[in-house]
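in:
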């Protein structure tokens, strides 16, 4: 009940034994590899026993339940260390412990770790909500301060607003869980829910990416959230589910799986689990739901991108190349308006902003402060040092290039006709277009500008598609309700990478994989005026409650459509205080709808070059240069130049990319032992 049988961790598991009606529960004997563990079980309902089996051995453990005259049932568990790994592959090294810097909910630190895996002893703290609206430590478990608030949960239980907070280490990350819990009830029992918990779990995912490697992390997304706790939701998060500490969706999935397992063994199996995260948190909600189905039942995906490795990085790397061309190669060749048109962005400032953010693929730019300088990669003085980039952090998936020892890289810009739409709209001329594409170049294996275009490692490209590093949408995500919510920032004065078209990228991938995006609702507002977290949480709860309560055989998508709350539809809100809701289908465009007039859906450099909004082609297939590509007819000399620039052809965006393929499956393991 606490995990899949093959992904058990921490030497224990919550087990349910279904008992035939003809057999008395007291006659059942349960063993683990011949060791009697029957005493760990109690009747659960009318036809089952349940209990936490402890002291499992590392590796394979066979559980056997038998009763005289009723045969036997067996289940094999594969138990992994609480320090991991389980399925994400070997632990990254070096790794800096942060327990001494991590602040608990009481303001204490966790002290020094007790081993090389950054472990600490698990601690439990009790906090309470005051009538003034703050969380403070409960003086003692028997104390009930005069300013202790009460709250009524989503299932109608009125309880003292006391929160049990557990903090510890799992998979080398620091985790926190929080549940409304009266300490007078004693130790939590997974078979007997305490009335403060409403039987649902919200798992929090944090943003970032820059510096998200080689460290344990000093913060979770935060678990003392009144919106959740006041309604009785359990809350959980880990430092390795904050992308500013760990920019790797695979390790994030593994960590979430292990932390949820711990939660279930402590409090019981939730009716459903909702994931919520913005930016780097949205990567995790999408990819965990798609690649490791069952961990998340519904997701709130804010300021979203489909994935980090492609939805984000392809746009950032293109911005880096454009910025280098516009500022270093041909600084006076394009006006700002022309530069913006080539980028596709709504603001010229976003070119430089996104170029700076592309440092996450440069192994020397975004090393975390905790990582000693002497351990960091330097091409001249320390070529064997820790490389601080997304690809090196995902080496368990992509593997290494044998000749260099560097991670294989699924990054490519060969054949891309940068600025094509700007040319065809008459914003730039043919000579500008030719020079841009002749000299824009690519990135070398340290992500520094180079004269030649970037050529992807085809093995890495195929791996990205097969393993879900490129979000597919047709795995578990197809059966998960999604609320995609966004505060519009395309028009931010300093530029911003959280562009609205990314929501449509996810929608397009759902359509490609499943023929529908009926499980995704898109909400857009400005400056916090419009939808609320409480409202989205209530809607998602209603949605999932309906789905989970339907035991019929209809397809999951049919149930998703059937139980979608009536008022929960695609919408945007007008700007400013007193924002009004505009309920209309959300589509791409600049001013073609009321919402797009308020919040234009700008594009990206690759979309200007002809790619579609799905943004799911890593390396395009090529076709010859043809005159019909250009609404401004090139001269003979210009066409000869184009053929020279694109001697291997230009992108054929109407055909699948090189190596593009479906998922190899879900719950993939990268264990290399």
């Amino acid at each position: 009940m606490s995990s899949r049988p093959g992904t058990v961790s921490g030497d224990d598991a919550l087990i349910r034994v279904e008992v035939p009606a003809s057999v008395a529960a007291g006659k059942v004997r349960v063993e683990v590899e011949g060791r009697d563990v029957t005493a760990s079980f109690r009747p659960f309902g009318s036809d089952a026993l349940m209990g936490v089996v402890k002291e499992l051995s590392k590796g394979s453990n066979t559980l056997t339940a038998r009763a005289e005259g009723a045969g036997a049932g067996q289940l094999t568990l594969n138990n992994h260390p609480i320090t991991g790994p389980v399925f994400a592959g070997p632990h990254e090294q070096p790794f800096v412990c942060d327990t001494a810097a991590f602040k608990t909910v009481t303001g204490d630190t966790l002290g020094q770790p007790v081993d090389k895996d950054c472990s600490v002893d698990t601690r439990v703290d009790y906090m309470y909500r005051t009538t003034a609206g703050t969380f403070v430590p409960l003086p003692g478990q028997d104390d009930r301060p005069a300013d202790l608030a009460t709250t009524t949960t989503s299932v109608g239980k009125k309880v003292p607003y006391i929160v049990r907070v557990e903090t510890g280490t799992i998979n080398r990350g620091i985790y926190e869980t929080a549940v409304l819990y009266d300490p007078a009830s004693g130790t939590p029992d997974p078979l007997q829910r305490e009335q403060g918990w409403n039987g649902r779990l919200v798992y929090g995912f944090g943003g970032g990416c820059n510096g998200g490697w080689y460290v344990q992390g000093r913060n979770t997304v935060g678990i003392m959230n009144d919106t959740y706790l006041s309604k009785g939701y359990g809350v959980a998060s880990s430092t390795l589910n904050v992308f500013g500490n760990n920019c790797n969706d695979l390790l994030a999935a593994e960590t979430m799986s292990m932390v949820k397992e711990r939660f279930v063994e402590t409090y019981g199996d939730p009716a459903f689990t909702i994931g919520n995260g913005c930016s780097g948190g949205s990567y995790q909600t999408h990819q965990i739901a798609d690649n490791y189905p069952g961990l998340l039942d519904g997701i709130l995906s804010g300021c979203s991108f489909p994935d980090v490795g492609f939805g984000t990085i392809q746009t950032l790397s293109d911005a880096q190349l454009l910025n280098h061309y516009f500022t270093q190669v041909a600084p006076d060749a394009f006006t700002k308006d022309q530069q913006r048109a080539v980028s596709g962005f709504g603001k010229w400032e976003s070119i430089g902003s996104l170029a700076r953010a592309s440092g996450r693929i440069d192994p020397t730019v975004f090393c975390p402060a905790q990582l000693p300088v002497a351990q960091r990669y330097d091409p001249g003085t320390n070529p064997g040092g820790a490389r601080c980039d997304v690809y090196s952090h995902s080496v368990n998936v992509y593997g290494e290039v044998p000749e260099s020892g560097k991670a294989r890289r699924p990054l490519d810009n060969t054949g891309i006709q940068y600025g094509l739409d700007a040319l065809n709209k008459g914003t730039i001329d043919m000579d500008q277009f030719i020079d841009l594409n002749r000299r824009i170049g690519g990135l070398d294996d340290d992500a520094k500008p180079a004269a030649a275009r970037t050529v992807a490692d085809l093995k890495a490209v195929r791996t990205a598609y097969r393993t879900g590093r490129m979000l597919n949408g047709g795995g578990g995500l197809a059966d998960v309700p999604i609320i995609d919510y966004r505060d519009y920032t395309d028009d931010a004065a300093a530029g911003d990478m959280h562009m609205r078209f990314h929501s449509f990228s996810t929608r397009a991938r759902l359509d490609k994989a499943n023929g529908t995006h009926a499980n995704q609702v898109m909400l857009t507002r400005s400056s916090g005026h419009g939808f609320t977290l409480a409202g989205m949480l209530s809607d998602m709860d209603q949605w999932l409650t309906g789905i989970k309560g339907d035991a019929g055989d209809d397809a999951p998508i049919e149930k998703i459509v059937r139980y979608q709350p009536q008022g929960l539809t695609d919408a945007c809100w007008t700007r400013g205080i007193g924002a009004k809701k505009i309920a209309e289908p959300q589509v791409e465009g600049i001013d073609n709808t009321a919402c797009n007039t308020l919040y234009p859906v700008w594009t990206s450099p690759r979309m200007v070059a002809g790619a579609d909004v799905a943004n799911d082609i890593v390396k395009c297939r090529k076709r010859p240069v043809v005159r019909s590509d250009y609404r401004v007819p090139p001269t003979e000399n210009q066409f000869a130049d184009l053929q020279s620039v694109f001697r291997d052809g230009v992108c054929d965006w109407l055909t699948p990319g090189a190596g593009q393929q479906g998922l190899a499956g879900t719950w993939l393991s990268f264990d290399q032992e």
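note: The chain has a mean pLDDT of 97.
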